[in-house]
Amino acid sequence: MSQKKSEILQKSNLNLDDDTMLMEDVCAYLKCSPSTVDKYVAQGKFPAPRKILSRKTWIRAEVVDWRNKQLHN
Length: 73
Fold this sequence. Notes:
Number of helices: 4
CATH class: Mainly Alpha
Structural class: alpha+beta
Helix content: 40-55%
Distance between the termini: 30 Å
CATH architecture: Orthogonal Bundle
Number of strands: 3
Radius of gyration: 12 Å
Shape: globular
Strand order of the largest sheet: 1-3-2
CATH topology: Multidrug-efflux Transporter Regulator, Chain: A, Domain 2
């Protein structure tokens, strides 16, 4: 779990774990920039994030499924 994610979760008292990803986690996993993720979300090509304490958060399974579909197309 990234340090930023850990800090956010401690401040928020939310019960999130490694099933969620922050923007930096998504970018590291997909090897792309935040602007690319934002562009794909805006175009409806990528799962929409959920907002937690004004931070974009994705469900890991949705990101993994999206990536797997991209690799098999």
